[in-house]
Write a structure and sequence with these properties.
The structure holds two protein chains of two kinds. By secondary structure, chain A is mainly beta. Helix content of chain A is 0%, strand content 52%. Chain A has strands at residues 3-7, 10-12, 18-25, 33-39, 45-51, 57-59, 67-72, 77-82, 91-98, 106-109, 113-117. Chain A starts with a strand and ends with a strand. The relative contact order of chain A is 0.31. Chain B is mostly beta strands.
Amino acid sequence: EVQLVESGGGLMQPGGSLRLSCVVSGFTVSANHMTWVRQAPGKGLEWVSVFFATGYTYYAESVKGRFTISKDNSNNTIYLRMENLRAEDTAIYYCARYGSKWYDAYDVWGQGTLVTVSS
Amino acid sequence: QSVLTQPPSVSAAPGQKVTISCSGGMSNIGNHYVSWYQHLPGAPPKLLVYENNKRPSGIPDRFSGSKSDTSATLAITGLQTGDEADYYCATWDNTLSIGAFGGGTKVTVL
């Protein structure tokens, strides 16, 4: 069964750091493109980052220099390291598979993990 | 501010049809496929349409997508109360090298 399970969210203070995990089952992260997408309270979906199977990574301007996406092929897991957190990073963070089965489409999603940044 | 523009809301009576537009440019919709998602509160987004006009298994044919030049459209026919949700278009942007989601459109069944 194809499944993505996120974890690692929580309440953080501004300026703090956090690492989100997304454990994948049913396919291998090494052969697929994986992304993080977030939704802030009352807002729409916002694309955050992608880790292409080729190894290339890209980031939204709002998180560039603060967030780092990575993969652990042995554990079939993707991560999002978040540093220098800001109140506007408060959101539900979803991991999703991108463009592997169908071009430019996010076909499998996790349930999401909530990150709250507040003092 | 997204590179893809959607109307904030659309509405119609049960059984009627709604269309949701998604406007972009040559660096995104003009050169990439468009996908559409339904997002209900408390659940992850659900893929409704991929590669402009194709539906994954299990998605009813009441949902259909189309694309022309730098715009795309999602149509929902035979509107049902269960279709009340937020809908998003998405694609890739070559110039910015980022994924892009539209701002989202809330569908209300009157």
